[in-house]
Structures are given as structure tokens and as C-alpha cells.
Amino acid sequence: MKAVVIHAAKDLRIEEREVEALGPGQVEVAIEVGGICGSDLHYYNHGGFGTVRIREPMILGHEVAGTIKALGEGVSSLAIGDRVAVSPSRPCNACDYCLKGQQNHCLNMRFYGSAMPMPHIQGAFRQRLVAEQWQCHRVADGVSINEAAMAEPFAVTLHAVARAGSLTDKRVLVTGCGPIGALAIIAARAHGAREIVATDVMAAVLAKALAVGADRVIDVASNPEELSAYSANKGYFDVQFEASGNERALRSGLDVLRPRSTVVQLGLGGDVSIPQNLVVAKEIEMKGTFRFHEEFSLAVDLIGTRRVDLKPLLTGIFPVENAVDAFEAAGDRTRSMKVQLAF
């Protein structure tokens, strides 16, 4: 089978790999599409992120969907021919965190396409993937396989919403409107947000934010005063989803948040400096959010029942043979939101 393998920064290759053996409780999935994620781009452009570096060749990818081609012994919940979205999250379900229901913090997590451990966890950008049956979630009839492959990043934002608490009747600020920020808008709307304002520094992504449900967008590069106006009377917003990883975006959000509001940090970045006195005086809660677990099933269900529409976010589909072109396109925010590979 063909697989998309990263060797070092800017060294991405299409290689032939053997299909894994099918074991009890497992299924073989013919992967049809895979979405390129921010972490995939970090591996491609920089050879890793933070202290995580590529130390051996690794198959990339974790946003995938396809069709079941073979069943292992004891599989009863799925059938050959089923179209499925595959959760890349494979917790051990035996460590202290798993037993507390915090599988996203599993001490022995095997998350597709991760260079954190050594040997690396091989990813899902391959033509055939052997997965546990419980990883695979059936895709509803009439839902494109491309939409199904966006269940993983959507699950990330559903977990962020869970960390924020109830959004019913809340005013929400989303800073950073890349794929995760745009999906946060969709997730917040689905969970009852009254008003959603989104900010970024690029007009192209702000247009997408409007298309997926933001009530208003602000280009903070050219019109920062439009956001600053919300700081009157100690602030306006109840929740901020910070999806840029940018210190200025976080600080500007703190200025316009109401007392006893919540910041949920989605974007990854370096160390930041925050106005601690402001956080204290407004009694602002700051929360991190990391991956997901049970939200993957919810994501597939929301997509399948048409309660959310992710189609506007898909901006490019490339054949696997053109993976380098796909990664270059995915890294260009002026023209791409979510780019997928077709296997």
C-alpha cells in the first residue's frame, strides 16, 4: 500500500508499506480521505514542534475516513462495506487517568502520527489501516466521506466547548479563525451560544468564519478598535475560545471579557505573558483543552444528522501522489482552510 511518510522537515515521501495483520476485534479500513492538520504541517515544515522532533520515518495523519474491507475475529458491530470515520485516539483504558474517565490524558496513549514516543506512533495517511472496531464510527448515508474525515478536528472543538461549560445564551469570542477556530464557531453555535464574534488578521479566513455561523468578524490587523469597543463596562463576552496561540490575541480577549468569564485555550504557542492583575480583578477562569475522547462519537453524530455543516471549510482535495503540493497548499492561509488527501 502507499503511505505518506515524513523523514525530516520538507522531506515528505510516498512509500510502499506492508498492510498490518488483522487481529481479533479489529477491522481493515480502505482509507479514502485524510485531512491535513496543524500538527502534520509542523512536522512537514519544521520537523516537529517544541521538544517533539522526528527521529525516524513516520507515517503522518490522523483525520481519516474510509470503507471497511475485512473483519477480524469477533467483530460484530460493523460489516464489510460500512463507511466509517476512524478515531485516532487509542488510550490504554488501564492507567489511572483512563480509569478516571480522562482518556485524553492516557499515560500510554497511541495517537496516530505522533513523534512524542520512540518508536513513533505511525499515522493513518495510508491506503489500508487496521484499527480496533471501537475506533470506527459508522457514517450516515448521504454524508460525504470528506465530511466524515472532519470529525476528528470537530471533536477537538466539542471537547473545548465541554471545558467551557454551558454556552446557552452566552456571548462568545473566537480569536483565530483557522480550521480549529472555524470549527469552534460551529460547535459554539450548536451548543446554544447567543452571539459569536470572531477575530483574525486575514480577510480570507474571516469570510469563512461568517460562512460557518459567526455573527460578526473583525480584522484586528486593520481595525483593532472594533474589538476594543467591547471593553466598555468591564467587558462584553462570557467565553473566549483562543485558537491562534498568539499572545496578543489572548491579551486582547482578556480586555473584552466580562467578570467571571472563561478563557479556553485551544491554540498552541510558546510562553506568553498575561496581565495577571486583570485576570484576578475580573475573576477570569483560564482553562486548557487537550484532544478529546467521547466527543468523537458526538462529532460523527452531529455531522450525520446534518445538525452542523462542515462543507464550507473544505478548500482542496489532492490525490495522494501530490501530497507535497497538498501540504504546501494547506500551509497557505490566504487560500486554504481544510485540505484533504484522496487515497
What would your notes on this structure say?
- Helices cover 27% and strands 28% of the residues.
- By secondary structure, it is an alpha/beta fold.
- The protein is built from eleven helices and 18 strands.
- The protein is globular, with a radius of gyration of 20 Å.
- The protein has two domains: 2-150 and 310-342, Medium-chain alcohol dehydrogenases, catalytic domain (Quinone Oxidoreductase, Chain A, domain 1); 156-288, NAD(P)-binding Rossmann-like Domain (Rossmann fold, 3-Layer(aba) Sandwich).
- It has helices at residues 38-46, 96-99, 145-148, 151-164, 179-190, 203-211, 224-228, 247-256, 276-282, 295-304, 323-330; strands spanning 2-8, 11-16, 26-35, 48-49, 52-53, 58-59, 63-71, 83-86, 128-132, 136-138, 171-175, 195-200, 216-219, 237-242, 257-265, 285-288, 314-319, 338-342.
Key attributes of the depicted protein:
seven-stranded mixed beta sheet; Rossmann fold; 11 helices; alpha/beta; 2 domains; six-stranded parallel beta sheet; 343 residues; Quinone Oxidoreductase, Chain A, domain 1
Summarize the structure.
The chain is α/β, with parallel strands linked by helices and 343 residues long. The chain has two domains: 2-150 and 310-342, Quinone Oxidoreductase, Chain A, domain 1, CATH 3.90.180.10; 156-288, NAD(P)-binding Rossmann-like Domain (Rossmann fold, 3-Layer(aba) Sandwich), CATH 3.40.50.720. The chain has eleven helices and 18 strands.
